[in-house]
């Protein structure tokens, strides 16, 4: 069976795409927004530049864009947006790297958070006896800039995303996960304090001690309660380099058993896993040229190969022992003999590894394309069903081109249950991400794969949670949040009673 794109989709998408791109925000009228109006832009360029995201699937046109010069401008906008008989919706846009229109608004105001980056240094590293080292960073800052600024002081945050060109406010509104999450929890679990402009226009400093309801609601809160203008992030001494390894498996249960084994402390500092499938596209650039043919042969032979990607950090004091530690950590693992590969790179090159891929893809014109991604959290007890039911029975059988498919475990106990983020009910759960890349006009075929995956989970009674969730109905959101739904709604009423914030998430009714 082949992965075919229905022709009518292509035609329909072309027509819709043309209609959307030819619209401009200038025809959308806003009620009066007082003094802040002088800072609003509604030229076609500003409106179009905030009308879609990394997904290139959803297009929404704002009536105006605010380039704030300080958090006070955000306060003024939100106060004015509430002060109308028909409140105006407001969407904070960090780096616009959502894939389903989460940072968009139709007819409201987009806050271009990156404008704050021009406003002097908003990354300040400090130390206190009670907290140790920490950084106060603007919600608009990119993680890559946080990394560079803290490394200058020999320090680093401990929990990351794979890709660092995302805003602090954007990832803290979701969770912020990567191969460090099994050890330290997601980025939302690594925050001391936040400044938040609530949906009522109040600038509030909150933490686990001060207004904790707002603090925990905002962490993983999908932008529903306020706009993060500052986050206080704990820092640790930065390592200098990383031993970066990949181990290949043909057998899923050996792969997942070894991943879970590697979650033990004092082993690797980073732990992820990926699929390589015979239908490709295959990126083997990590591996020595000489080894690439035998890797390709292995993938062809089995159809699917799983690999564990892990890293051990080291510095001058551990440079002599790191190889021994890696050796000891991987002893007894069941990867295919001779299919262990290693690189030795600087810490920053390791953390910034996806940027290298970005540059390659950009040069091939393959970055600005559609990304119908789906990420789910799967309880450990059902992860082998995902292998048989999804990887083998959907992806392999239908020959679905798999750009990047990731799968790695995390510890529930590293996620504070008071945060808005939702995860499965088991101690260990996996993230499974199908990071599809498609042409502008064939993403629907990948969405059909996503639909089949979710349907398979429903039919098989696998209680998954979406990460970077996207739902169409209130009922689905209610199911998603489960026992947290009531408090999520209560916090909305308390902090954003007119429901003006983050309409692109489509959780509460979108307002104009
Ligand atoms: P945006 O898309 O701009 O905004 C996302 C949501 O947050 C919107 O609802 C928006 O209104 C709201 N928001 C934005 N700024 C603020 C703020 N300051 N305060 C309150 N709300 C705000 N995620 C991971 O966890 N791990 C990964 O490894 C990872 N890798 C990725 C790699 C790529 C190439 C891409 C495109 C995405 C990746 N993501 C990953 C997903 C990413 O973390 C989320 O999409 C995140 O929201 C992107 O941040 P952003 O600044 O682009 O947010």
Shape: globular
Record field, number of beta strands = 19
- Taking all Cα atoms into account, the compactness measure Rg is 23 Å
**Pairing-aware structural class of the strands and helices?**
alpha+beta
CATH architecture of the largest domain: 3-Layer(aba) Sandwich
Indicate the mean pLDDT: 93
Overall domain count = 3
CATH topology of the largest domain: Vanillyl-alcohol Oxidase, Chain A, domain 3
Number of continuous helical runs = 16
Account of the protein in words:
The protein is an alpha+beta fold. It has three domains: 123 residues, Uridine Diphospho-n-acetylenolpyruvylglucosamine Reductase, domain 2, CATH 3.30.43.10; 119 residues, Uridine Diphospho-n-acetylenolpyruvylglucosamine Reductase, domain 3 (2-Layer Sandwich); 227 residues, Vanillyl-alcohol Oxidase, Chain A, domain 3 (3-Layer(aba) Sandwich), CATH 3.40.462.10. 30% of the residues lie in helices and 21% in strands. The chain is built from 16 helices and 19 strands. Strands 5-6-10-8-9 form a five-stranded antiparallel beta sheet, sandwiched between helices. Strands 1-2-4-3 form a four-stranded mixed beta sheet, covered by helices on one side. The longest helix has 17 residues.
